[in-house]
Here is the input.
Amino acid sequence: MIYCDSNIEYENYDRDEQMKSKPKAKLAVFDTFKTKNQDLTGEAKRQRSIITILGNNVNPAERTRTGISQKIAEKQEISWKNIYSGIFRDLDEILLPMEIAEEAGRLPLKRGPKALQEKGIPYYQLTKKGVLIGSAINGIENMPAQLKIFFAESNPKEKEFEKILTKFMTTSPTFTYSIFQKYVKAFCEDKIKELLPFDLSKLQDISDKNLIIQKEVILAFGKLSVQEKKEATAFLEKIA
Here is the structure.
């Protein structure tokens, strides 16, 4: 059961009305500590959790600021009020302005300040851009569902990638997942100006050693004879 603290919601309703400017939004889902580049920062983990919750199509009460805070806090075994301000900031200063998430509707309140009762409590959902980011952070097992949702809303040019990526998703899921990770990470690092329209050719201008190696192996494999492919496959199975 999701508990809504109307006092906290009212404080932030008032803050919504008074905010005149916001800092430049920056998505931090791939940010790591400088001394531990394999460990995600607290902000990265928090933003990932928000995107995951919004992408799981849970009931509206669990997609309010309070609901999201409670779901994350329950998993971490901490008080949800301790992380509420961080959730508020991530939504209102990053995910909403960047159009990664959007308001999906409002839940009425039966108690609390009249202004808040009349306006209601907003709950959120992912945009198409948010679904794309979710496909890069939620793991290989969630990728089929994520791609199905994303390409259902894609334009003809974006759909050019659907057939081959769907095939790769079945035959090479790790490779496919890494492509989405590289694409979204490049956006987070300002190497790609916009995520949408979805266009993997944007990666051509980015020097990525692993991607270059993967491309080289795939292109070389396609040029081998049937016998050479068998030999190459046997070789790769011995080393990985």
